Amino acid sequence: MAVPQSIVFEVQTIMDGEMxxxxxxxxxxxxxxxxxxxxxxRLLPRHLLIHPDNRSQSMLSYxxxxxxxxxxxxxxxxxKLVEGTTIAFAMSTEPEKRAMQLAKNKALIDNAMGHLAxxxxxxxxxxxxxxxxxAYLRCIENGVTGPSAESSTxxxxxxxxxxxxxxxxxxxxxxxxxxxxxxxxxxxQSSLNSANSIQKNISELEVAMLxxxxxxxxxxxxxxxxxxxxxxxxxxxxxxxxxxxxxxFSGHAGSFxxxxxxxxxxxxxxxxxLLGEDMMxxxxxxxxxxxxxxxxxxxAAIWLTLLACxxxxxxxxxxxxxxxxxxxxxxxxxxxxxxxxxxQMLQDAWGIHQSIHAGQGKHIDGHHVDNCFGxxxxxxxxxxxxxxxxxxxxxxxxxxxxxxxPIVDVLSAKPHVVALLQNAHMTMGGRYTNSKEHGSMVFIxxxxxxxxxxxxxxPFFGDSIDISVPLESLKKWRSTKTPMPKLCDVTMxxxxxxxxxxxxxxxxxxxxxxxxxxxxxxxxSSTSSLAFGQFPPSLMTMVTCKKKAGKLTPMGNISKHxxxxxxxxxxxxxxxxxxxxxxPKQNTLFEDERHPLVPYFWVRACASDAQPNxxxxxxxxxxxxxxxxxxxxxxxxxxxxxxxxxxxxxxxPPKKKAKAKAKASSDTSVPTPPTMPPPSSxxxxxxxxTMPPPSSxxxxxxxxxxxxxxxxxxxxxxWWHEGNERLRSxxxxxxxxxxxxxxxxxxxxxxxxxxxxxxxxxxxQFIAVHPDMGNIPGNDDIRAFIAMLNRxx
Length: 793
Hints:
The protein has 27 helices and 22 strands. The chain is α+β, with helices and mostly antiparallel strands. It folds into five domains: 1-200, no CATH class; 206-396, no CATH class; 408-479; 502-666, Beta-clip-like (Beta Complex); 708-792, no CATH class.
């Protein structure tokens, strides 16, 4: 039914009048009842939902529902306090608006994480007064528990169950009245902010939402402020600061997205928290001394952090996890640059938040986005204020029943029991200090008797120090978290010294490998008369190269191969492990002087049907086996250098080979570093520091790889013939190292100095191949060989 214009005019006149707020409410209800648009009905809690405009569109917080409900349960439910004083609007008869009302309630219930009762389908009215009471009774009826596992069980004889089963009288208003006067639900609700004698203060955020609602319904600022002043005596002194914030920092006029975000986050994560006049004024009027930035997101983040105040920082309903000096710190010169960066970060995140809510992220839950952005705001402010550990609900609040003190009869208690009661910080086994009498020494409380307390200190060396403390002197001791002095175990010291620790041993080995690689490159690489080309990347000779005159070795960054299996790419062998040579970033376009050119990595793999002019080999330098490319046959001037295809490439299917061939011919970047083929008799020359001798074939004879080097002692030969390739490589390394020391085999015992150097080198090698050093398994034969050398000295 349509509402007569005379009724609309009369209600508007009452709302704009000078009567007190409650008197206006009584006059409006009387006017509507006389017109047949309002009546009194008996409704059950299961028939009621929350009006979307309740508490300035915040509806309600399930935290407030349970805190208020538990207080109501403690004093007992008195139906006389709600009889005929609670107001509800009938649900809209328009399908779209009715669907919106149901959707708002469903979202509220879903976000409550199971702490509000679900809808049952019989609801037909929306409350604007008594909403928390109705929500709590619905939870009891459906057996829902609270956010802190509060029980909702009550005896069937309790008055609460009579209210659930019988209901009480409500003032119901036709939905047509709301359609004709949209601001009426918010206006009536502002005078009905409590029920059942449990007063719930209206917070600054609810006042801000009320102002925003009034603006949205066509009120001027003066009218909105005047109306809001009557709704909350607690926030009356802050109304000007709240109005300033709404006008300047709440987002787009009309929609006020920042305020709605604060409301959505707070009703899920906290109960209604008051800020106080000083904090609200500081948030709204703080001057950051910037002509281009008013820091709106920083202000919103401060407010949100206060709304998320943990219980242990709450004082009589006011948030005190931040104080004025914390907020002042944000605009000080030392912190302002960080505040500016944080503001920009929050504005960027807010843009993403708004785009998702605008429909660009329909696959993402909007409430989840609110939660993420809210946590970002809180953590940002706590970080800027240096309160990250204490100022948020995310910090753990420890509480244990085991910490509860037993009941003690002090009249009959012994002196030491009374002393412990008077010095609650003293507990058995706790650590304490007395700096005036004992300096920085830490003592543990061992026992307490009527004669005094026994405290014990354990020094690094010597016996423990026990002292007796008179009971009256316990107040001089302070608890400490400093541990008792502790000596490192001798075994731990032995195994973790720099000369044996795996990290230092590996670093020393890497340095030795790097030195050997540089020595090989300086001694053997033929880097003169080379030409580099690009498109495709190529390496060529500028002169005719004689047979075996062109030698190339890799250069790059060295790293130890720690994975299982053989490494991919260019690798060295030393100390029983593989060492990967990673090519550096090179001057591929011949324009950047900062980057090098490494010829070894510019040699391309030839096609399977082409003939390579460079061959793989290895060369041993100071026990390090280094890969090398050399020409077995002469190379003509301006000829492109090519190496044989890798074994892995040769085993690929024909399609992959074709793709690899096409890529090799069209690639414009540096060629892939050649992977060394596995060691074999056909690819390795004799272990020596020189190139392999001339041969009619392209590879050294197979039998040469098993021949021992010259000057090898007779006692070593059985080890050589029965050992594997790794042991032979180590034996060559040992023999060359001994020769580098400068002594002959027969004079090892003639000089104590030379023998000491040799023994020290053997000890280092034994440590390098020890299983505890993290090397790959299979070094047992090397360790046995080293032990034989030590015994022979």
